[in-house]
Amino acid sequence: MDSLHEKFLEEVTEFVADLENALLELEKNPENQKLIEKVFRIMHTLKGTSAMFGFDKIGNLTHDLETIYEFIREQKTTLSEEILSLTFASIDFIKVLVETNNELPTEEYKLKYETLLFSIKRKVDILEGNHSATSETANSSALGEDTPEIVSDEKKIVTYYIQFIPAGHLLTTGVNPLYMIDDLYALGECKVFLRNKNVPDLSQIQEESCYLSWDIFLSTSEEKSTIADVFLFAEDACTLKIHKIADKSLLQDDAFIHKMKELSVVTEGISLGSITAYLHSVSKESARKEEKAESKKEVVVEDEPKVSLSKIASSKNNSLTSIRVASRKLDEMMNVVSELITMQARLTLLAEKNNSTELTSIAENFDKLLRQLRDNSLKICLVPMETIFSRFQRLVRDLSKDLQKNIIFSTEGGETEVDKTIIENLSDPILHLLRNSIDHGIEDAETRIRNGKSAQGKIHLKAFYSEGMVQIVIEDDGKGIDPKRIREKAIEKGILSETTPLTDKEAINLIFLPGFSTAQKVSEISGRGVGMDVVRQRIEELRGEIYIDSKVNKGTTMTIKLPLSLSIIDGILVKADDTCFVIPLSAVDKCYEIKHDEIHAGFNDLVIIDGEQVPFYYLREEFAIGGEAPAIEQIVTITYEGQKIALIVDRIVGEYQSVLKPLGAMGISKGQELLLGATIMGDGTVALVLDSGKIVKQLLHKVFI
Amino acid sequence: MKKTILLVEDTGSIRSLVQLTLQGEGYHVLAGVDGADALKYLDGTNIDLIITDLNMPNMNGIAFIREVRIREEYKYIPIVLFTTEAESIKKKAREAGATGAIAKPFQKDELLGTIKKLIR
Lengths: 705, 120
Hints:
The complex is a heterodimer of chains A (705) and B (120). Chain A contains 22 helices and 21 strands. With 705 residues, chain A is of the alpha+beta class.
């Protein structure tokens, strides 16, 4: 919103400059109708805009000035020296107010402001005095009559009969009568009877005409005027009658409803006359009954708690449903939660060592609660994607204008929630991808038509949950990426040898390699020296992945996959000799046992699991861990994009929630691609968190995807 | 299904303010800087509601509403006019085909309430 504020101030400064110029011209040439029109328009805009942004003082000044210029515009008065100097004085004030953010710096200024406002008002009064009371004063007095109507605290439920007969042309004004009836339901209990007697024979029907009308009974505590407000937009295009027919709710009265149903089907239909006649007869009868038995009173008493109950319900609705919190506070909270998780691991360990059942049960309960706390805190840090989507709308619009491309940008899944740290770092990469799509993806209108596409390009941005991750997909229907060209370029740059076999998809994803850019003409928009490699790097820093799919002349689809949270992950704790590893639980499939001898007896680094050949990754060997392997080892199968591999470890310890710490400047940070980070265990030792996706990729030699 | 609102407003800050507000409520917003500019959206694009300012250069609000109403596919679409003027202007707007009017300056709730009365 701050940027909006700045934009507003910029605009006001522009308006003021325009205004000054126009006034200087007017001084020389006071009869110029065009200039007067211009001054009036600027005043008008200034008034509306500044009031919207809370600059009420500018609003006050311009409000009356606008009235004065309206008189001049309608030639009811002439532009006098006095008016001009009032205007100039006001302009000077507007300048000050813009500088000081709607504050008057000194008492002297305040006094001056009041005097100026007063002089302008007086001028308006004089002008209006000359030309009889304007509608505006009439309006304000009407308002004045309304306000004293003090609404009593104890709002009683009454029943209204509303007769709503739309004129035939109602639909052509853009009004949907059903919405109004919906709104009535929001005001209280409602019973609606449709009148469709006027619907003509099908052959005679004019589809844009409204033939229906409604009889509505509404039990509500709202004022009659609130009900009339519902029909505000239909005012000119309907006959509306609202009558109070009872001081209580009639809608629980089955006999009444039944009678109305009966009335609605007979030819005369429901009318105020027939309703009052019925109510009259009923009240007579009940009066007679009441004489006989007083038990009726209890029913009345029973009614009262109902009212108060509904009141409680409505007051509940009014309580806060969301609050704003500084994101720094959330960071602090997450920090504390992660520390707690580390501490909890220590507690569990201590309980195990001491072999005390009491302590163990405390530790277990603590663990359960902590998991809830963790899940809740993670949820609190989630922000809907919408928050960055709206920023993109504007960008695409501006950019496509700059590049003179006609593009429809649509978004989907704005409600998808992602950790706020991810969102903060996501906007730049997505911006870059969108820029690419607009600049290189979508062709100009002529080319598109030549290629048999609609002149208008489409870019669709969507977010959704899938496989325990958040996916963000950017689709365009532009020219796509030609894998042949990518391959040629890669060979030319020495990234790829001519003989390397690559699928088209693999070739396209080469553009994520550093120093790769296929744009022949570097434009101002996407050629900023930031390549796709940086985009990928950014996404990977967020523990995410990105890939591209593209069909020549059909379009390009870019998919970003992101974890739901950055700092805490559920995993399985495994051991190889004395070294602990954590495998993210999201990737884990199943656990098995295997005899040590079988591992190397197999052919081609494959093990057979459930009758299926699965490539394996032998943790002990890959991480050069010494010691003797146990006779029976354990297998954890992990799946990544449909590819299954087996991780062979010494021992599976169990489920473990780990707080991810970056490896950072530690010695092993080089060549740590296979690790997401480290986590601290209860006894203070460090466990390494494996990046399951990377391991699968490396094992299957799919370097480029 | 997201509802699409066409917003026609020449003052940039108001346009952005309204646009952000509407987007925050989950509407899809198309924006035009004046009547003439906004005509480009009337090419069969699905629009559920139009909000237009009154005083604008290059085709004002009333003229724009007339342009909308002569197009068959936008004949019945609800149109809301931003205005500060008196009854006479509102009457003129209704005759041109506006569904309703909101007086500037307005509160967020006023704007959203009016929209919810017309589309949902």
